Amino acid sequence: MVKSEEYALVTGASSGIGREIALQLAAKGYSLLLTSRSIGGLEQLAAEVKERYAVNALCFAADLADLDAVAKLAVWCKEATSSLTVLINNAGFGLWGNFDELELRDQQHMLQLNIGAVISLTHQLLPLLKQRPKAYILNVASTAAYQAVPTLAVYAATKAFVLNYSRGLRLELNDLNIYVSCLCPGPTATGFAERAGMSALADLADKFNMQPKEVAATGLKGLFRNKAEVVPGGLNRVSGWGARHLPKLWIEGISAKLYKVKHK
Hints:
Low-confidence stretches: none
Shape: globular
Structural class: alpha/beta
């Protein structure tokens, strides 16, 4: 158990994996800085962790696809505490469909959140993390990071960026005792599929979904053990191995069949 004056920032904290990570960090004794677009969900979570774990929990509602909002969040964090020890870059979303048929503005919004917010927030908060004897950064990617995925082309590319960025940053910060890990979950029972417009694949997803609680626990375990990459679930680990070692065209062909969308 750590002292409660140590803080963790969790983005995308109001639901899904982010919410479970926040709860499990609170159980470990961390006070929380919570952010997402949903102030209602954040306030409910803050009340829950205060009651269950007697730690502090502060909320900041923002759409982190707006880089001005990211800058305001960073200022808020610095004003809230000088003891930021853990940064969880979890906020993100996907869009399912043929690239030319998805709205360009929506795809650019996804790029800003999945990549821009991660870079900007990490850069602005590193001075705080450097003040700690030991600090941690967990970036949430996806098993989609390991291969191109037709009809999730931009989403998969953003997660490939997050994975490679995390591995590079990890080596840069290692001498400063700031440990960087990348969590790469597969299908998980969250609101991701609905927001991505993947309701047509609900039956397929239900066969492979993991629960957010299990994904969060695996991610935090890997983070605190200083793992470079954390892939929850045996099937997901086998899939990741295959994506790295089997011919790309073969893996991409399987993905294309699984996620195919008919052109309009």
